[in-house]
Amino acid sequence: MFESGNMVKSKTRTPELDQGKHHRAKLGFILMSTDLAAEADFFAMAPDGVAVHITRLKTDDYTTKQTLARHIEHMADAASRIQPDTRPDVISYSCTSGSIVIGEQRIFDEISKGAPWAKPMCLVTGVVDALRELGARKLVVGTPYLDEINTAEAEFLVGKGFEVLDIQGLNLTTGIEFGCVTPAYWKAFAREIDRPDADAIFLSCGGIRSLEVVDEIEQATGKPVITSNQAQFWSCLRRAGIADRIHGFGEIFSRPGKRLRA
Prior knowledge:
2 domains
C-alpha cells in the first residue's frame, strides 16, 4: 500500500512494443477554423493503419480573395504543429479556393519551412491529380463560392489544361454557410449542372458535405464525380504509398495513382 511521503518504485519490465496504431502512413491536414466537413470526411475515408492529424488556421468567416490570401501568414507554423515527433508522410493545406488564390508552390514552400520531413501538398494539387488519373478533360464545376472566386477557379483549371464547360456557384459568403448546405442539395445541384459532353463533375470546396453523395451522383449520371476532400485524400494516400481500393467514395478510389506513388 502506498503511504504518503514514500517514493513509488516500479518493478523492471520489458513492455511489448510494435510500430503503433498508425504504422502504414501518417497524413496531416491544415484546415480552416470554419470548416465543418473535412475532418469527418477524412476519418470516414481513412483505411486501417493510416493516421489523420489535423490542425486549424484561424480564419475569417467571410470568404473572399482578400481573406483567403491571408492564410499563408501562419502556414509554416501550422505545419510545424502537426505531430512533429512522429513526422507525417504528407501535410496538405485543405482549402480549394485558398490554394488557388495563394498558389501551390508558395504553399509548398511554407509547409516545408514548418515540416521539412513531410511531402507538402495542397487541395487543388489533389484535385488536378485525380482529374488527370481519370483522364477527364471537359468539366462542369459546382461551388458554394462568390463569383470572384469562381472566376479565379475557372482560370486555374483552364491553366492546368482542362476545359470548363460550365462553373456555377451558390454565392455564399461564409464557411459556416458552406457546411450547412445539405448533401441532398449537392446531389441535385450536380445533376443540374451536368452536361452530356462533360467527362466529370467537380464539386469544389473542402468545407461542403458532398462526399456523402458521391456514389449516388455517379450512379445517377454515369460519370465520375470529384469532390475536394475526396480528391485531396486520395492523392495524399497515394503519395504516402497507400494504394488501397476504398469503396463508397467514388470511382477515383479504384485508381492506383502509380505516378504519385513512384
